[in-house]
Design brief:
Blueprint lengths: L2 E10 L6 H9 L4 E7 L5 E8 H14 L4 E9 L8 E3 L1
Parallel strand pairs: 2-5
Antiparallel strand pairs: 1-3, 1-4, 2-3
Length: 90
């Protein structure tokens, strides 16, 4: 199975609404590792890695569950795996 590292920047009404907590909770349903954190410019950064199908499913789940808060999502993929052991809020 192919591993994938995904970097996503979410913009919209994504800070101060429990967004990071909800992303971390969603991660429990997928075999992914990484983190989610607020950025100073008002966006939220998420890095996730795992099997490509798990990472893609996780992103789709976030975009579906939190669509009322997200105005835009910028996604980049990398083959540079970090090897995290869990999914955390930073």
């Amino acid at each position: 199975m192919e591993k994938s590292h995904l970097i996503a920047h979410f913009s919209g009404h994504v800070q101060g609404v429990g967004f990071r907590y909800q992303v971390r909770e969603a991660a429990k349903g997928f075999n992914v590792t990484g983190y989610v954190k607020n950025l100073a410019d008002g966006r939220v950064l998420m890095e996730a890695e795992g099997e490509t199908t798990e990472v893609d499913g996780f992103l789709a789940d976030i975009q579906d569950k939190l669509k009322d808060y997200i105005r835009n999502t910028e996604v980049k993929r990398s083959s540079d795996l970090k090897g995290s052991s869990d999914f955390t809020i930073r």
